Amino acid sequence: MPQILVEALAKTYRVAERTPGLIGAVRGLVHRQWREVWALADVSFSLEAGELLAFIGPNGAGKSTTIKILSGILRPTSGRVEVDGLVPYEDRIHHVARIGVVFGQRSQLWWDLPVIDGFDLLADIYRVEPARYRRRRDELVAMLRLEPLLDQPVRQLSLGQRMRAEFAAALLHDPTILFLDEPTIGLDAPSKLAVREFVRRLNREQGVTVLLTTHDMHDVEALAERVIVIGHGRLLVDGPFASLRAGVLAERRLYIDFVGPAPMLDIDGVTIKAREGRSLELTFNPGRLPAPKLIAAITSSHAVDDIHVEEPAIEEVIARLYELHDAHEA
Ligand SMILES: Nc1ncnc2c1ncn2[C@@H]1O[C@H](COP(=O)(O)OP(=O)(O)OP(=O)(O)O)[C@@H](O)[C@H]1O
């Protein structure tokens, strides 16, 4: 029996139609027109205990809605959800004792309270037995290097520091499942690395099941073995990251600055995308032509000033997935 089971999940939101202008606004107060927005059309997947799954997709794809339903905040329009045998939105009290949630854009700590007081309050709310709480809190404080921040009010923390405190807050009651909604959003590079390292340890060493949404492909690469791509409220892909990468993500971009004007390159399997002055941008498939081989071929015959390889941005990957999906549906 999987730990998380999602079957034919659908969610519509009812939003008020706005008529422009003052008269429209007044009329809207009297006869409000509603329109339905399909956030999720039909999503099914399951997750075994101890898995780490990344949920990716463009803005508005339905990722946050899925996390909100799984964490019991929202009720779906139709479909079935079970987490550890419970229906999250029907048995919230028991459910929240087993899960931890971190929203990158929202805080569960109290803005004006010192971090440690917020932790104490949460332990009370979750009714964590005092000795167990102190043990878990000290463990998390050490893992997340929170000691120097404990007496500071949350509002004085930097975003990176606050996210570390948020992770501890979400885990004080020792949940076996962690939902993360864009946990690295807005963080600088060292803070992102710290978050990834912490999530990895939590999953690998403590066996916590993690479901994560992100727009950062580096999060996915660093953490997830399995990836679900969601778009238009539907599942587009569910599989190992390695195969997604080898298929849709195969293309790499190479940027080269030459010492002199950019030469005409004619290499099998390489497409020139842009040429300007001394610069050249090209694409290649590393499965067919490994990057070191390509770079060696170019640098052995041309003087190069700078060179770097880039993976396609997540938006490009998603756009490509849409094309494949639409072609398949047609
Ligand atoms: N409370 C709400 N009321 C009305 N519509 C909503 C509400 N929340 C979400 N939506 C709509 O549902 C759709 C899915 O939104 P959701 O926030 O789940 O997407 P997302 O994949 O998390 O996007 P993002 O990457 O931008 O966070 C969007 O069209 C959004 O406008």
Outline of the structure:
Helix content is 37%, strand content 28%. The chain is of the alpha/beta class and 330 residues long.
Give the arrangement of secondary structure elements.
Elements: E1 4-16, H1 21-30, E2 34-47, E3 52-56, H2 63-70, E4 78-83, H3 92-98, E5 99-103, H4 115-125, H5 130-143, H6 159-171, E6 177-181, H7 189-206, E7 209-213, H8 217-223, E8 226-231, E9 234-240, H9 241-247, E10 252-258, E11 270-276, E12 279-284, H10 291-301, E13 304-310, H11 314-329
Parallel strand pairs: 3-7, 3-8, 5-6, 6-7
Antiparallel strand pairs: 1-2, 1-4, 8-9, 10-12, 10-13, 11-12
Adenosine-5'-triphosphate binds next to strand 1, strand 2 and helix 2.
Spatial shape:
globular
Number of domains: 2
In CATH, the homologous superfamily of the largest domain goes by the name P-loop containing nucleotide triphosphate hydrolases
Distance between the termini: 35 Å
Largest sheet: 6 strands, mixed
Backbone CA Rg: 24 Å
The structure class reads: alpha/beta
CATH topology of the largest domain: Rossmann fold
Helix % is 25-40%
**Beta-strand residue fraction:** 25-35%
What small ligands are held by the chains?
adenosine-5'-triphosphate
Average pLDDT? 90
The top-level CATH class of the largest domain is Alpha Beta
Count of individual beta strands: 13
Characterize the structure shown.
With 330 residues, this protein is of the alpha/beta class. It is built from 11 helices and 13 strands. The chain has helices spanning 21-30, 63-70, 92-98, 115-125, 130-143, 159-171, 189-206, 217-223, 241-247, 291-301, 314-329; strands at 4-16, 34-47, 52-56, 78-83, 99-103, 177-181, 209-213, 226-231, 234-240, 252-258, 270-276, 279-284, 304-310. It has a 6-stranded mixed sheet with strand order 5-6-7-3-8-9, with helices on both faces. It has a 4-stranded antiparallel sheet with strand order 11-12-10-13, covered by helices on one side. It has a 3-stranded antiparallel sheet with strand order 2-1-4, with helices on one face. It is globular, with a radius of gyration of 24 Å. Bound molecules: adenosine-5'-triphosphate. Adenosine-5'-triphosphate is lined by residues 13, 15, 37, 39, 57, 59-65.
